[in-house]
Amino acid sequence: MDHERYRRMHGGSGTSMKKASFEVALKGKEQIAEDSWAFVFERPDDFRFKAGQHVRITLIDPAETDREGDSRFFSLASTPREADLVIAMRMRDTAFKRVLGRLQTGDKVLIQVLLDVPHGAFALHEDPSRPAVFLAGGIGIVPAFSMIKDAIERKLSHRLFLLYSNRRPEDAAYLAELQALAEQNPSFKLVATMTEAAGSARSWTGETGRITHSMLARHVDDPLLPVYYISGLPEMVSVTKTMLGRSGVDEASIQAEEFTGFDLNKIGGVAAHGLRRTIPIAAMVLAVAALVILHAGAAISIFRSGLGAGSAANSIWYAVMGILLVLAIIKIGYFAGHHLSGRDRTGNAFRGHGDHTEHRQDGPAGPL
Length: 368
Hints:
Layout: H1 3-9, E1 19-33, E2 36-41, E3 54-59, E4 71-75, E5 85-90, H2 95-102, E6 108-114, E7 132-137, H3 141-153, E8 160-166, H4 175-184, E9 188-194, E10 207-208, H5 213-219, E11 227-232, H6 234-246, E12 254-258, H7 270-304, H8 309-340
Parallel strand pairs: 7-8, 7-11, 8-9, 9-10, 11-12
Antiparallel strand pairs: 1-2, 1-6, 2-5, 3-4, 3-6
Helix pairs in contact: 7-8
């Protein structure tokens, strides 16, 4: 998530946008997936927002804090027509989430919302002739869930598609609710896919593997027509944007929300993808270190053997050549890793956010 961008919007630095602030009481909390919880807060009468919009939540006089601070940005899982305000997140061991998790019914937090949704915000487009395709991983489902529910509640004529990736069914927040929505609304199609279905205690007969171009083509008639909404971990967002670009989707037709703060080593799919790139690079670094030691040792041995100035010069030259070789290998490894990461360095359409302590999720999209 682009934390700095949201801080600027909310007045953290530089020019801020107009916002409204409310102290709201907790009404309840509910586990919505393994390690994922929803927190339900009262909604003030004059609280206004758009589906998919984020808010800033600040703890009031918390019992503990850490260097990440007492505020986080969250997407709302609720819709503008619902009576309550709902946020959802994967729980992890931070001071903010420990305090939030210990809140009791009636305890209050400060919630701030932008009064005007900025241009390019994560919000449903207005042209019903263009379908909306949501590509979500893990807890990145939250803004998509809000936008899909809102479109159905308002009886919009948009065709809606959701490709939703997780490791296992038990990791998929709001899966049952989304399945019910798809059964009841012909305009909404749900494609849930699991990257580690074999490791689930539940039976799974749906799609498996990462979101790919071929999966998209099987379920969306004209992949170049829709507006795409991607939400998940930064790597998932980056890889999915690359996949769409290679498929011919115009960048202006892609919106993205990143959810950050996870330990990628604990997340299936994306973590596996990253580790496949990281392990060879780590092995190469170890090999380079060994090469440095061998070259240096050989040079010192030659010098100490007392074979003369010429030999000493040769040993120094040998060491220098070894160091140059090491530097060349390191540079090659850097560019290889950089290329494999699939990151789009333009920064276009990257409007990150998330539980902005955590978000950005599981189950990635895969390459073409």
